[in-house]
Amino acid sequence: MSCEACKTIPPVIPQGYTPKGKWETIADLKTYVTGSTDASIGIVDIYDIFGLASQTIQGADLLAARLNAVVLVPDFFKGEAAKHEWLPADTEEKQKLLMGFVSTAASIPNNVGVLLEAIKEYQTKFPTVKKWGALGLCWGGKVTVLSSGPNTPFAVSAQVHPGRMEAADAEKLTIPHIVLASKDEPAEAVQGYKDIIGKNGIGGVIETYDKMWHGWMGARANLDGEESLAEYIRGYAQIADYFEKYLN
After folding, report:
1. Which of 109, 114, 193, 123 is nearest to 154 (CA)?
2. 60, 124, 192, 222: which could form a disulfide with 71 (CB 3.0–4.6 Å)?
3. pLDDT per residue over 192-238, tens digit each?
4. Which of 55, 51, 18, 9 is nearest to 225 (CA)?
5. Residue 12 domain-assigned?
6. Residue 172 belongs to a domain
7. 99 vs 6: CA distance, rounded Å
């Protein structure tokens, strides 16, 4: 097997995907666990506001296989999730439903705390893991970047089509960080990240997938479209390549 073959993520299954992992309760959260449980690499994969979507679970499996890692997808929302029909939040009713969810189960400050407590149990449960990375999709990207500052337990982190993206968040980073933005993220925030990461001395990558929409690697991924499937694959391969540099 060539090195190039070693670095290829498994084939993506557009429809009827069968997850490769199993469900456990860890840190009081139902958690999807995939990959090698005695791996030296661990990744916490934080889903978007739509929760445990098949496309997100398959992405976790791809990373686990490509990096020979253990990948955890905790259910922070405890069985709840935002509904696709709430977006765009263009009516008073939709706004009320979305804001109610964001202020309770999907509270970002609360879930940053949950993540930073949960990682302590992950470290105990998977003692062979030498370094942990964190990947956040949309909503999860905000939780991830806010967990990547001083005294972070992570060695590397990533945001994919980040939700509520603010350049000020990048100023607090203390670890290498990669952002894969869609065409829908605010250009000013993306440029702000570039400026900050470009001079912080830590390192990072900011790339915009300019033909993709917000959510193309998570619950809103369209794996039936030729272009969107290719960009889903490219995105997960790019995250894997970046994480490999800092987790091995």
Report:
1. 123
2. 60
3. 999 999 999 998 999 999 999 999 999 999 999 999 999 999 999 99
4. 55
5. no
6. yes
7. 44
> Considering its fold, how many domains does the chain have in total?
1
- Cα–Cα distance measured from residue 76 to residue 160, given in angstroms and rounded to the nearest whole number: 18
Pairing mode of beta strands 70-74, 29-35 = antiparallel
Question: 68: domain range?
Answer: 18-245
Query: For residues 86 and 74, what is the distance between their CA atoms, to the nearest angstrom?
Result: 23
Edge to edge, the sheet with strand 204-209 lists 22-26, 29-35, 70-74, 41-46, 131-137, 156-160, 177-182, 204-209
pLDDT score at 5: 41
Contact 86, 40 (CB under 8 A): no
| Percent of the chain whose predicted confidence (pLDDT) is above 90 | 95
Which among 97, 48, 106, 41 is positioned nearest to 67, based on CA atoms? 41
Least Cα distance to 59 among 248, 238, 242 occurs for 238
Retrieve residue 21's tokens. 């992992």
Q: From the CA atom positions of the chain, what is the Rg in Å?
A: 17
- Please report the pLDDT score of residue 88 as a whole number: 86
The structure tokens 């391969």 sit at 237
Asked whether residue 1 is domain-assigned, the answer is: no
- What is the three-class DSSP state of 13? coil
Query: What pTM was estimated for this model as a whole?
Result: 0.95
Q: Is residue 153 part of a domain?
A: yes
CATH code, domain with 119: 3.40.50.1820
Q: 118-168, pLDDT tens digit by residue?
A: 999 999 999 999 999 999 999 999 999 999 999 999 999 999 999 999 999
